[in-house]
């Protein structure tokens, strides 16, 4: 079961954000939680669930598009 935080509007967005964050971790970005030898995907899901990862969605209150 996915623990989707309130700031993420759908499980599909959660999966995409998790995949992007996991790729960042695999490419050398330091985890924001203790990794305890876990896979990057598990770490990314935990980071998102705890609200540690900042993100923005294009087209939603984006000041650059005004």
Account of the protein in words:
Helix content is 39%, strand content 0%. The protein has 66 residues and is mainly α. The protein has a domain at 11-51. The relative contact order is 0.19. The model has no long low-confidence stretch (mean pLDDT 87).
End-to-end span in angstroms? 38 Å
Biggest sheet record: none
Give the rounded overall mean pLDDT. 87
Class derived from helix and strand content? mainly alpha
Strand proportion, as a percent range, falls in under 5%
**Record field, number of beta strands:** 0
Proportion of residues in helical segments: 25-40%
Contiguous low-pLDDT stretches (5 residues minimum) are none
Pattern of helices and strands: HH
- The number of helices is 2
Provide a concise account of the structure shown.
With 66 residues, this protein is mainly α. The chain contains two helices and no strands.
Labels describing this entry:
single chain; 66 residues; mainly alpha; 2 helices; 39% helix; globular
Which SSEs are present, and which pair or pack?
Blueprint: H1 11-26, H2 40-49
Helix pairs in contact: 1-2
